[in-house]
Amino acid sequence: MGVLVAKSPDEWAQVITKSFVPLSLGSVSGSFRGSARSSVLGPAVTLTEVRTQGASVVLRSAHLVRREPSDDFLFSLHLEGDGAVLQEEREAGLSCGGGALYDASRPYELRFPTDTRQLVLQMPRNQLRERVGRPEDLCGRALPAQHATVRVLAAYVRELAEACDDLRGDQRTEMGLTAVDLLATALRAVAGEGFGVPTGREALLASMRAYAKQHLADPGLTRESLARHHRVSVRYVAELFAAAGTSPAAFIRDERLHAAHRALTDPRYAGMTVSAVAARCGFIDRTTFTRAFARAYGRTPAEVRAAYSREP
Hints:
This protein is an alpha+beta fold. It contains twelve helices and twelve strands. The chain has helices at residues 9-19, 62-67, 125-132, 148-163, 169-193, 200-214, 223-230, 234-243, 248-264, 274-280, 286-297, 301-309, and strands at 3-6, 24-28, 33-41, 45-53, 56-60, 73-80, 83-87, 90-94, 99-103, 108-112, 116-123, 142-143. The strands form two sheets. Strands 1-3-4-11-6-9-12 form a seven-stranded antiparallel β-sheet. Strands 2-5-10-7-8 form a five-stranded antiparallel β-sheet. It is globular, with a radius of gyration of 21 Å.
């Protein structure tokens, strides 16, 4: 997609809806001007540079969410001016070099009292959830510009926006996935140091989930190994996962399948056989892996890989 330019509020509402998800305007200054330049990074990820002149308020209302639903997440990296993201009764101030995540499946509001420039990374829900767990809990919270992981993310996204036109299709896909990886790293790091930190039973369950995700390749990963590592009983492990609506075995299986799906759709692992992907994710038997994967995704691992390899 090329550059879309708006010289009036009505035109701007059309531009941002076409560039992102269906949106409306709460208010716009009389002299408002805006532009959006989007770059497609693979099958589902986009990076859009947004420039505005004049104040504006952008709304994703409950009515729009119901009428025109979207499961995407968006991350705004703020480069110039002032702004704020409001979602779930939380408000994240946008400072230069910092940003915030927001969820298109729920209402949100974007406030820009000054001229602004920002880069917006948009990605499907499953891509971020596979890397973060519950990114919904991190929406409407500021990622500060001074944090080391946010600085790395910001530098990468800015450079990607500059170089995108010079990248081939497969390179764009790889770079887009790397941007999502870096965003996930920043979200996890900032969450662990300031907001949304679980305590008590929640903290122990979060630790078990993190341990499991780090050891998916180990065929011996079980509720017993989780209990040993965390020095609690097997029964207590089962109780913690049951309170979250699952079981240790189901959680481990689902995470392994998510990891396998991510590898099969990631061009960085195109040279890895399906059997190698299965082993990398902790599945000993190829047949068992194929059956479980087909039940979860409606297609076999080979079919998923073939479908993504045909994407431009």
